[in-house]
Amino acid sequence: MQRFLNWPALRDDYARYHTTAGNRVCHIIGIPLIMLAVVRWVGPAAAVVLPLYLVWHPGLGIAMGLVVAGMAAVAPQLPVWAALVLGWIFQLAGHSLYERKSPAFADNLIHILVGPMWILKELLRCK
Questions:
Q1: 121-127, long-range: CB within 8 Å, 24+ apart, which pairs?
Q2: What confidence category does residue 31 fall into, taking pLDDT thresholds of 50, 70 and 90?
Q3: How many domains does the chain have?
Q4: Pair 24, 18: CB distance under 8 Å
Q5: Do 7 and 118 touch, CB atoms closer than 8 A?
Q6: Domain with 115 in it
Q7: What is the pTM of this model?
Q8: pLDDT tens, 88-101?
Q9: Which long-range contacts (CB under 8 A, 24 or more apart) does 94-100 make?
Q10: How many CB atoms lie within 10 A of CB 68?
């Protein structure tokens, strides 16, 4: 359980799978698209992950809450399939064309939740 709650360890492990600039750019585009699709599908239930984000990193957790709220506002206007398909195309392109290794979640499923907050951390340039 402690490993599941250790943001610095999860963040650093996730970073090992995202070392190239091309892959990072693909993720900056792909992960928000996938998040939009998930928020569109599950609606307010998407907020269920926010307490975990707050435990991992309170400041980023609050920022993630704002991101999810913003996505909830715009998601109903988007075709869910397009966001999901385009998001995964960017994700897979990043790993196959630039990183040349499997996505982090292939080794640790918790990275599906780490990815969105890691991208936000990168965009905000914080730890």
A1: 121/11, 121/57, 121/60, 122/24, 122/28, 123/28, 124/60, 124/63, 126/59, 126/60, 127/8, 127/11
A2: very high
A3: 1
A4: yes
A5: no
A6: 2-124
A7: 0.89
A8: 999 999 999 998 88
A9: 94/18, 94/22, 94/23, 94/24, 94/25, 94/26, 94/27, 94/30, 95/17, 95/23, 95/26, 97/22, 97/26, 98/20, 98/21, 98/22, 98/23, 98/26, 99/17, 99/18, 99/19, 99/20, 99/22, 99/23
A10: 21
Question: Please, are residues 77 and 36 in contact by the beta-carbon 8 Å criterion?
Answer: no
Q: pLDDT tens across 36-93, in order?
A: 999 999 988 999 999 999 999 999 999 999 999 999 999 888 888 888 899 999 999 9
